[in-house]
Amino acid sequence: MRKGWFGKLKGSLKKSRERLSSHLSPLLAHFPVLDEGFWEGLEEALIEADVGIQVTQELLDKLREEARAQKIRESAQLLPRLKEKLVDILTTEKQPLFSEGKLGIFLMLGVNGTGKTTTIAKIAHRAKIEGKNVLLAAADTYRAAAIEQLEIWGKRVGAATIKHRRGSDPAAVVYDAIHAAQARDVDVLLIDTAGRLHTYIHLMEELQKIKRVVMREAPEAEIKTLLVIDATTGQNGLSQARLFGKALEVDGVVLTKLDGTAKGGIIAAIEDELKIPVILIGVGEKLDDLQEFDARAFVEALLS
Amino acid sequence: MFDNLATRLQNVFTKLRGRGRLSEQDVGEALREVRLALLEADVNFKVVKDFIAEVKERAVGEEVLKSLTPGQQVIKIVHEELAALMGSGQSKLAFASKPPTIIMLVGLQGSGKTTATAKLAHYLKNQGKRPFLVAADIYRPAAIEQLKILGEEIGVPVFSKVGKSVLALAKQGIREAVPKNCDVVVVDTAGRLHIDEKMMNELEEVKREVRPHQVLLVVDAMTGQDAVNVALVFKERVDFDGVILTKLDGDARGGAALSIKAVTGRPIKLASVGEKLDDLQPFHPDRMSSRILGMGDALTLIEKAKTAIEADKAQALEEKIRKDSFDLEDFLEQLRQFRRVGPASQIMEMLPRIPGLPNVGKLQVDEGQLGRLEVIIQSMTPEERRDPTIINGGRRSRIARGSGTTSHEVNQLLKQFEQARKLMKQLGKLSRPKPGRRPFPFIV
User: Which residues pair with A33 in a beta bridge?
Assistant: First the structure.
């Protein structure tokens, strides 16, 4: 399964490379011996993957130091070291996605258009396959037809949706959904929230209220607050993670749209600074295009 | 906190400005900072490389280094090159000589096409056009429903039919628009990845058959380095005419806009700056460069204020200030007008930076708190609003209960009002406020 995703990822990256090539294999061929040209190329490759200037410089400083201390002369020797460093940043302790024997609540957050609703459908699909009883909560009461969109997905995967009317209080939807989940002996409750820019304080407060309701009404549950980030996002992703994380504790990131040509390097900056682990990745439009995050496979694709 | 591009450049410029003589090395150092700032703003690394090379070539020329104010010269060059990169002059939408004008919106998933379609229709309607929308996103669940609801909200007809291909929908939509006397047809298409052959073929076919007058690429302002890849492929396949930049109301520094213009030559035509349907504005490249360079966007603010603040009310306020009879009613009115101009954070963004003072753009303005202030005043009797000095302990707790706040918050409001009143008094005496004073006294 992992190979399939990796192949797919590599395939799509290859396409983009043919168009705008500035990647590592030509770099190694061009600069077999370590020199300024190689360092510059390496920096550009990391920047182009959206890793961000800060982490890039930290990584390169460490590599330069190692190269000096260990008298490394060939560029090819450096690549595995760079990969190790990135893998180190991105590796975190794995936890099972679904909790056994108690209600698992997923609270999904993110800016507009990152793919929250689609991700919910994918997680619901996965839970159904594992034989779980799944319920959806349509707490995006702001965007036109967001409730309908979630309901359509719910029907496709075979999960009921708790909803109110558009414009109603999202916290009230969540309240009802939790009580429905408790009454119906649900295993997994997925809460869809409206996309919002992290800079709107009152919208962050609305999320805090939703989370308070979740914690108060379902103290027995295992709550996962997941931030959905679009792999196409640049350095703003770090600001998103900071501000959503400041408003309410975020347990993990879902990185979506990795089937395009964007490499999603911003997660390195997020993990480096905020230590929020990436849990899942979205690699396509189909329901089963959801994978558990694997740091090594990700780094291989990023630096292939 | 992560420095924004504007602050970074400001720092570099302040350093340069103070110098009487500059060596080539000084210039190189400054440009390294500029480079980092641009990269942090998500400007594509290749664009940055070219940009820096261009500036350097001009900046190390004899006449710059030997001039009396070399720092100023370098700053001027960075300005000019940045403005050139963004394009000069506003790029307007083109309309067909024989209506209807057909506009097609394309882009990646989640870039904001459907919302942009509705905002564009609203914008066109305000310009005196009669727009007609075609909901041709047949893939995303409830996308058609979403456009129908938005169309209803802005009073613009929306055409769609289940079970039709995108091409058939677009063609029939255009036919339907004519008898309805509509002169602009906006076609919303499904989000797609630029590397999805099948979906890009579909778009090519629609473009070939329908021959829209304008194809607009919708781009998320938060996009990173990949923006150029996306834009280049969309240009190759459907040769778009311009860009709608969305989600510019956040803290994205919008380097993608710069990159796309530089790489494809296509201008940014419109920008979406808020959640409301009337938050779509013409894009002014010169103003955007000013904003990036930390000079504020005073022009846009003045324009917004003009439309939101009614002239007669402003005059009445002026009268009151002169007579020192500014009361809580006026305070409430001022609050409402301020909120009508736009979210407070957006206004602060547009204010010019004053060197040596903390960046006002970073002042946290609590939208919810502005709302609470309104509610508190609304919970007062007319008598109390006219003369807040009569508010005693009993009245205070009544107001707090009525507004769902605390006595402490009521007290804070009264204090802020008192400050505002004092300021108004000074304003009435002085013709201009002192530089650096907070422009809106009720913001803590």
Answer: A74
Provide ipTM, 2 decimals. 0.91
Q: Which residues of B touch A261 (CB under 8 A)?
A: 194-195, 226, 229-230
Using 50, 70 and 90 to split pLDDT, how confident is the model at B341? low
Domain boundaries, chain B: 3-85, 101-293, 308-428
| Contact present, B133 and B156 (Cβ < 8 Å) | yes
How far is A5 from chain B, CA to nearest CA, in Å? 16
Q: Residues of chain B with pLDDT > 90: what percent?
A: 42
Beta carbons of A53 and B112 less than 8 Å apart: no
pTM of this prediction?
Answer: 0.79
Domain B3-85, classified CATH 1.20.120.140, yes or no: yes
Q: What single string gives the DSSP state of each residue in B3-46?
A: PPHHHHHHHHHHHHHT-S---HHHHHHHHHHHHHHHHHTT--HH
Domain B308-428 has CATH 1.10.260.30: yes
Architecture of domain B101-293: 3-Layer(aba) Sandwich (3.40)
Q: What is the mean pLDDT of residues B223-249?
A: 95
Instruction: Output B60 or B145, whichever has higher pLDDT.
Output: B145
B232 with A44: Cβ contact below 8 A: no
Specify whether the CB–CB gap between A98 and A104 falls below 8 A. yes
- Residues in B touching A12 (Cβ below 8 Å): 195
Amino acid identity for residue B285 in this structure: P
For residue B272, the SS3 value is strand
Q: What is the pLDDT of residues A164-202, one digit of tens each?
A: 999 999 999 999 999 999 999 999 999 999 999 998 988
Contact B250 A198 (CB under 8 A): yes
CB under 8 A, 24+ apart: contacts of A55-58: A55/A89, A55/A268, A55/A269, A55/A272, A58/A272
* Among A152-156, B203-207, B311-315, the least confident range: B311-315
Q: Which residue of A has its CA nearest to B366?
A: A201
Q: Do B149 and A112 touch (CB under 8 A)?
A: no
* Residue A256 parent element (H or E): strand A252-256
Which regions in chain A score pLDDT beneath 50?
Answer: 1-6, 8-22
**Bridge partners, A217 (sequence order):** none
Helix axes B407-429, B328-341, angle to 10 degrees: 90
